[in-house]
Fold these 4 entries.
Entry 1:
Amino acid sequence: MLFLVIGFICLVVMLFTNKFYVFGGLSIISFFIYFMMVGDGSWVTFLLFLSGIFLLILEIFIPDFGLIGIAGFVLLALGYLSNQNDLWGSLFDLGLAIVIAVITAYILLKKGYTFLPGKSSLVLGTSLQKNRGYSTGRDYTIYLGKTGTAVTTLRPSGKAEIDGKVLDVLSDGNVIREGASVQVIHVEGIKIIVKELA
């Protein structure tokens, strides 16, 4: 049971630090020792368990409506439970290890660690602004300040005719009825925001 707890704690620390190889390796070693000491000691069950954990971690990086996560959970449960001789004792061990891992995660969050610190590099942190040389393909700022007519009711999105062109627009938060006069008050990329003229 000790090695199961150590394995889960190392997994949590791995997800909260940039030391993926160190804590990932320690986690694999701990799980391996646990599987060889407890139950049947089969390589197949250990690899099923490890594959399940890998898929659960992969689910964090690849959003796919939970299919990878469900497959990971099934493999983890199949690998763990088929290795055990005492079902209730093994469920208690697993439950306790998960509780300790959750407490470890809570402590790390309280200490100021962030979940997946390297993942932020996968998301663009700066906006792509026109004055920095980026382009969305079409410049809608030419409509800024221009007036037109709502072609559909804007709740808040809809269509408006401005300068003879029908454009997708957003109201400034209010419902604007079809046929009302509107003015473009803000443009951000392809988002055109209009207000109703009194």
Entry 2:
Amino acid sequence: MSTNHQIFNEKLLLSKVSLGDRDAFSQLYRRYLDTVHQYIFLFTKSIEETDEIVQDVFVKLWLQREQLSAVQSFKAYLLRSAKNKLLDHLKHQQVKKHAFQEILQQVNQPSDTPEDVWRYKDLHSKFQEVVSGLPKQCQLVFRMSIENGLSLDEIAQQLQISKSGVKNQLYKAQKYVKEHIEDQFIKTLIIITISYFL
């Protein structure tokens, strides 16, 4: 196929997609899936994270399909969309990391007075009590991530479940905390701690 014919064919596909043609969209998806996947993976180094971001890129592409008829270079347009989604993802990870570190700093700050020592012990005791009340599988996953410092991939490998299965257990832990914990600081601490690993 000549370059000119390929460009014409692509513009025709874009025109069809802009009108809601799902078959035309599927052709573009198959043609560019590997390109987008390889680009995102260069930065995430995670298959599952890459899959999620790539899915978001193409979903957004479909939702904004009316704009495609005016696109001159679809590959450039697609990679720019992928770059924006990747940056959103990385910024989100940084925000979660910062919030997590802020909470930990409050919990682990040096205790100068007997009152500070008592407060820390009380906080630690409540934290452990909450974790012990989690459903068995949630508690196991939580302790492996927080206390053992294992990543989602490492937990999945050790428990022989999928990474999404590990995430599901952490989401259940979040739900449990929201429904059963009254202490607002403890609730915030655990929810942010869990979110950091999701």
Entry 3:
Amino acid sequence: MTLSGSNYPTAINQSREIDLFAAHTISESTHPHWLDQWVGEATSEQVVTAFSKLFFASPERAQRIPCLPPLGDWSGNRVSSGFGLREHPTLHTLRHHDGIDIAGPHQYVRSAASGLVATVGYSSTLGRYVKIDHGNSYQTVYGHLALTSVRAGQWVVIGETLGITGSTGRATGVHLHYCVLKHHRAVNPADYLTLAIRFVAHYQQQQRTQTR
């Protein structure tokens, strides 16, 4: 089923958990920049909780929140290192890991949300990497790439190919380092990986229930 703005109700329910929603009635006439402002002021946890409401209000704006896994096919992949404190695999010291590492064969890396490519670069730690600014307090970083297929200043849509996984920089094997930043501070990417997938599955289940 193709999801588009015409599929959504004209308003969404207010949220008891998120006070900012209580002061506004969000409908198709709501200025989309207000949604960006709300996302910018909300905490990471609040955005994750309210994702469905944001999608109902503006699918386009919601797709600028990191909500897709950065690899399209998870067969043969595994999360080799999670977010938080860990023993660094090459330095063998206890350090905070600001993202997650997804190990697997060489494969395409895709944008987890729509946004503007801020940086395509190389560092001694991340190797070849792409950084995307989503314009709503969120940025995503994709590191250790074997090659990149985008340029700085380019607008990319959710799911667009950014490059191919590799082992450039400080890496022990082929994998993707994926980082989600909110106001330039790392948040746990695991909270965002399947937001869109779960939303679509829930929406389709609701539609099937209503047609019975």
Entry 4:
Amino acid sequence: MFKKTFTAAALVLATAATAVPVAAQQISFGITAGNQQERDAIAGALVLYQIANGGDPVEVLTQAAQGGSVGVIHQEGNGHNGSLAQGGGGNAGGVFQFGENTDAHLAQNGNDGDLVFVFGW
């Protein structure tokens, strides 16, 4: 199912990239877990991402092991506005912003798994 989600996201991105109006300032796509297994896969990927980017492995793994939420906001470029609000516990969320002047906000309410990718110019 997770493979199908990524395939669908790639098709949406390819279609959206060809249909973006010239006046658009950003394009975005998201991936949402459809079941607990996909949510766990997103959480695992975010934990590895945090460790690879200098997060304390013990702290990150303890947070995930105790049913806490795992969250990442990654911004490359300038002028980004992004937020990640997690409530209810057991969330896995990532907001990834690239380019210039993007706007992305993710709200999770418990046991959610979501990734948002935004590219601006």
